[in-house]
Amino acid sequence: MLHIGIVACSAEGAALCYRTICVEGADLVGPYNHPEVSMHGHPFAQYVKYIEDGDWAGVAELMLSSAEKLAKAGADFLIAPVNTVHQAFDLVAHRSPRPWLHIAVEVANEAKRHGYKRLGVLGTRSLMDGPVYRETLKAAGIEHRVPPAEQRERVHRLIFDELVHGNFQPRTQAYFTELIRSLKDEGCDAVALACTEIPLLMTPESSPLPMLDSTRILARAALRKAVEG
């Protein structure tokens, strides 16, 4: 099996990704078994500073630094279980010592597998405003919608003030439920949870739309790649 390298940013998303690989690996390769996994993460504060400054070259350098360390640890390919940093992906991929899976591409592949035509997208401000899902979904022939600007700002603040700290409040879940309901009213047939902490807040029962959990989708894609070689 191939060795998976996880480029960690926020603790909650990275931990969920790692746990998914380990727990679901047993379904593919037997009890207690899973591919070898290594993880490296710079302090999240460094990522936050570059993201808030719109310095995607700075984000890329952090990702490449982790990539180098993981390559030396023996990783055969890399994943980053955080959506926002994929805005720097084009600055990373051609310089990386190892190939990557792209989180938005894996979400788009899953959406196509289910036949979804229009996705709601929820994530950080720069993710919802930026090109990562807009361009990836367009290339896959899938429409997308995001909430209005005021709601995008509130979602952003809830992510950084609560979710990345592992603080999951019932009132916040209720707010996301109503956001997803409004996306359903706009004709969306599924919602992409394009922040790797939102899947820890929302459940299928609390969502008015089918959820595309970007964290677990990426972890499962990495697991398949590792097992299939």
Overview of the molecule:
With about 230 residues, the chain is α/β, with parallel strands linked by helices. It has two domains: about 5-100 and about 215-229, 3-Layer(aba) Sandwich (Rossmann fold), CATH 3.40.50.1860; about 105-215, 3-Layer(aba) Sandwich (Rossmann fold). The chain is about 55% helix and about 10% strand. The protein has eleven helices and seven strands. The protein has helices at about 10-30, 45-55, 55-70, 90, 105-115, 125-130, 130-140, 150-160, 170-185, 200, 215-229; strands spanning about 5-10, 35-40, 75-80, 120, 145, 190-195, 210-215. The strands form two sheets. Strands 5-4-6-7 form a four-stranded parallel sheet, with helices on both faces. A three-stranded parallel sheet has the order 2-1-3, with helices on both faces. Helix 1 links the parallel strand 1 (about 5-10) and strand 2. Helix 2 (about 45-55) runs antiparallel to helix 3 and helix 5 (about 105-115) packs across helix 11.
Summary of the model, kept short:
With 229 residues, this protein is of the alpha/beta class.
Write the SSE topology.
Blueprint: E1 4-8, H1 11-29, E2 37-41, H2 44-53, H3 56-72, E3 77-79, H4 89-92, H5 103-114, E4 118-122, H6 125-129, H7 131-139, E5 143-145, H8 149-161, H9 170-185, E6 190-193, H10 198-201, E7 211-213, H11 214-228
